[in-house]
Write a structure and sequence with these properties.
Layout (H helix, E strand, L loop, with lengths): L2 E8 L1 H5 L3 H11 L2 E8 L3 H7 L9 H8 L4 E9 L1 H9 L12 H5 L8 E3 L3 H11 L9
Antiparallel strand pairs: 1-3, 1-4, 2-3
Enzyme class: transferase
Cofactor: Mg(2+)
Keywords: ATP-binding, Cytoplasm, Kinase, Magnesium, Metal-binding, Nucleotide metabolism, Nucleotide-binding, Phosphoprotein, Transferase
Length: 141
């Protein structure tokens, strides 16, 4: 078994549309364990730190504006190959191209407002978790 942790964000559009419970339920039903969960509003500084890998790209400013436009849900999920499992569950970035049955395929018609974010590698997961969560907010059980 290759137990991993990954970070998932339910973005402001997902929160606004009342999709929190549905999205969390999908991950739980898959067998992923929630290690941390909170609602927060990203500051501009925190959003820029989180998305620093995209700094300088044409969409960076609009991404930061979107991610700071309302509350988000942040969670750490753990399970066997959690990173790739979650990535398959959420689907491709562009909701218009995401297959039905994936979170983005079922709930997004956009590339920019695509309901969820998930870490794409173990290194990204570690960095992103450190940006969003303090050590004492992560529960081992």
């Amino acid at each position: 078994m290759n137990t991993e942790r990954t970070l998932v964000l339910i973005k402001p559009d997902g929160v606004r549309r009342g999709l929190i419970g549905e999205i969390i339920s999908r991950f739980e039903r898959k067998g992923l364990k929630i290690k941390a969960l909170k609602m927060l509003r990203l500051t501009r500084e925190k959003a820029e730190e989180f998305y620093s890998v995209h700094r300088g790209k044409p969409f960076f400013v609009s991404l930061i504006e979107f991610m700071t436009s309302g509350p988000i849900i942040a969670m750490i999920l753990e399970g066997d190959m959690a990173i790739s499992v979650v990535r398959r569950m959420i689907g491709p970035t562009d909701g218009r191209e995401a297959p039905p049955g994936t979170i983005r395929g079922d709930y997004s018609l956009s590339k920019s407002q695509n309901v969820v974010h998930a870490s794409d590698s173990p290194e990204s997961a570690m960095r992103e978790i450190r940006v969003i969560f303090k050590d004492d907010e992560i529960i081992d059980w």
